[in-house]
Predict the structure.
Amino acid sequence: MAMGREQVLQQVQEVLVDALGVDDDEVTEQATLMGDLGAESIDFLDIVFRLEKAFGIKIPREELFPAETLMNNPEFVNNGKLTERGLAELRDKMPHTDISAFEKDPDINKLGDLFTVGTIVNFVESKLKAA
Amino acid sequence: MRWIWIDKFVEFKSGESAVAVKNVTLAEEHLHDHFPGFAVMPECLCIEAMAQTAGILAGEAKNFEQKVILAKIKKAVFFDYVRPGDTLHIHAGIESISNEAASTTGRIMCGDKVIAEIDLMFSHIDQNLAGKHFPEENFVFTDTFKSLLQGSVFSSRRITESGK
């Protein structure tokens, strides 16, 4: 049974409400996970587990949150900022995200702002189609 | 894990679930002050008991190769007090586990009474903290602690085999 985008969004919202302890009206498609919803790095792992359960899919964490893997690689991060190689990698791994604003100040603490609720919905939709 | 807050395991299904026992005694000094005249086990220490039970379960599932650190208390709901003389059964189960983390659910029982429901999230820190380096040795699961677990698991296997 194919799920419509509305249904996916609704389930993603439920996951985020449970994982982050936020109100459902805060979880808009535009909301950023870290900035608006207060997610911390461990929450990303929690969200991955919950999405897997909610949608019955397998999610390699680096696919949904490639930034996490980038941050763990010293070749891509120097002094708290992404290096040129890191930025190239990010463009490659997140083709559907506009990173032009981030590129001006590639502070890894701001990487989280690239992840919005909409990003997750897009990702889950693509996974469900592939399944 | 440098201090042990559970007494033994009575059930251990690798990668799935475990049950540990903790006997609460008035010999624990903090109970004298918490509270004078009405000793109650602090709820944070109930969470610690669950963290040790579930943390060992998660650690064993990956052959104690990961440094398993409590990262998030997803849920902690308490239904009753724990008093000196109580024997707690701490039931923990693995909900999800990956290379980077583990998520567990759990329930603390005293006899038939549910004391608490506690769901936790553990991080395998070597896989997570932005390339920061930690000591080579696994400071979470020390030898002393592992030998305690082995003793418990062996005795629990005997319990299972004898059909009790």
Remarks:
- The beta strands of chain A are 77-78, 81-82.
- Residues 76 and 85 of chain A are 6 Å apart (CA to CA).
- Chain A has two domains: 1-58+115-131, 66-113.
